[in-house]
Amino acid sequence: MGRTAMKAQDDQSWLWHRRLGHFNFQGLKILHQKKMMTDLPQIQAIEGACEACLQGKQHKKPFPSGTSWRAKAVLELIHTDVCGPMRTPSHEQNRYFILFIDDYSRMTWVYFMREKSEVFKVFKKFKNLVEKQSGRSIKVLRSDRGKEYNNSKFDKFCEEEGIEHQTTYLLCTYSNREKAQAGGKTEKGIFLGYSTQSKGYRIYNLKTKKLIISRDIEFDEDAMWNWDEEKVERQSVMVPKETHPQQQQEEGTDQAEMERRSQQAPGSPRTTNIRRD
After folding, report:
1. Which position among 28, 57, 58, 98 has the lowest Cβ density within 10 Å, counted as fewest Cβ atoms?
2. Could you tell me the CATH number of the domain that includes residue 143?
């Protein structure tokens, strides 16, 4: 099939996708094959980004069932998390506790705290204990993105002690789901690279003007961000047509001029759609 015919078929597929309330392409193909709709043309499954579908249908990415890396020695990787506040305090007025789990041996340590602000002090106490007893050093600490772990004091200590601090994702849920659905599920962002601390992407959120780390994104490969005009631009696809030699020469000149202009224009990063937690 020629490129011109494929382009026309793609346009028809997108048209019927929108006409039927953004019905998925596989469903449209079944309707055509079983002749369940009059005048429905042959539908081509298209790998592209539909902004309306992403706004209303984007889901969180599934987490892998297994892990890609496990520690091979004690203290090579320590998992930690904080639980609390508890409704009823202990006899010592503690309302929180913090866990440290060694990934290799699965040995667990529990410390009780009155406030979350004690996390840094407790971690130093734990580090001193296990390193003196084992004769080894903590290499990697893995925590969530809570402020008790992610602050300048904690980061500086890990850097000075040669500890790699990895972070996972906070579990966030909507307290008002109706409001969340009315506002859409995604926000636009610009892909800046990969995070070195988490299994996620570094995204510049165009709405909040902040850099975030997210794994729940969908790339729009045909969109570019224009920093000067602060808007999304679409890449145009040149589709060859059957023409006479003279007309081909004229169109070739126009195409060369367009390519020259595009090379002069500064490159723009790809845009992405970020799922809001």
Report:
1. 57
2. 3.30.420.10
88 and 20, same structural domain? no
Q: What's the number of CA atoms in the CB half-sphere (13 Å) around residue 102?
A: 19
> pLDDT tens for residues 170-192?
544 333 334 444 455 677 888 88
Average pLDDT of the residues in 226-248:
55
Residue 55 lies in a domain: no
Residues 93 and 161 in one domain: yes
Residue 127 lies in a domain: yes
CB 239 within 8 A of CB 153: no
Number of domains in the chain: 3
Q: What is the mean pLDDT of residues 104-114?
A: 97
Give yes or no for a contact between 186 and 203, defined as CB atoms under 8 angstroms apart: no
Shared domain for 83 and 40, answered yes or no, is: no
Distance CA 184, CA 8 (A): 31
CA 106/CA 265 separation, integer angstroms = 55
Exposure string (b/e) for 182-198, b if CB count within 10 Å is 16 or more?
Answer: eeebbbbbbbeeebeeb
Q: 62 in a domain, yes or no?
A: no
Pairing of strands 270-275, 186-194: antiparallel
- Strands 217-226 and 231-234, by their bridges, are antiparallel
Average pLDDT over residues 140-147: 92
